[in-house]
Amino acid sequence: MNTKQIRNVDISGIQHLPMIDFIGNDFAIFDDIRDIPFTPYPTRLNAACFAVCRKGWCKLNINLRDYEMREGMLCIILPEQIVQQGERSDDFSGSFIAVSRDFMDLVIPTMQQLFPMFFMIKERPCIAVTADELQAFEEYHSFLWSKVKLKDNPYRKEITQGLLMALFYEIYDIYQGHAVKERTPKSRKEDLFERFIRYVYEFYKEERSVSFYADKMFLTPKHLSTVVKEVSGKTAGEWIDSLVILEAKAMLKSSEQSIQEIADELHFANQSFFGKYFKHHTGFSPKEYRKQ
Known about the structure:
alpha+beta, Jelly Rolls, Arc Repressor Mutant, subunit A, 2 domains, five-stranded mixed beta sheet, 11 strands, 48% helix, globular
């Protein structure tokens, strides 16, 4: 897959459709996807998408892994994930919410606060839910939609943010409940991996060396790298780099900071070093990426 050819899509791409309600380019809510122009080509979503399937089925590829969303399933796509839609049944229907990355950042003050939920979602974006859990999502969907329609209410954005925060905690509870039911007890290696990821989320802006995290965990860099690779399929360095690049992309796209200021915030020695690092991992210079 050539990531240079991946199309970036955000909420503005569907704002012309009549059966969807919006708050600017931050939030969209709908229950009919027949008019949405899906493409069979890889697409990078610049928003999170929360969906439950009421009927039928739909095939998806999320970050190079295949999933099938069926009746009674919850599916969540996170910002920056690469999505490719496959076949879907003629009777496929559901409830859908799309939230921009910026709007999510306003709702969730720090990523660490709900980090375990995002980690669970990345591992299992589509899960079967109970009838009660499905009903809870539908109730939030209905209530959110009724509030978003109140365009004369000067606080509808703030009301929506509050309801979304509550919904995120409901989803976290759903994922935790299913993890308790379905997972076997964590092995020591899985426990080490989760500790490593938590440290990375805490320090990735300041520290990019595997040895730093190994020292925090009283391990040798070689042992940490072996465990992380065995559990996740990615090296410790790849996990660190992916989070740094994800943050850099978000800052380049959604902030007015100069490239030098972004390099400083991410603790690179200088702008030139940041530029080489970014281009090595993305194929673009920071300036080219910002212009896309």
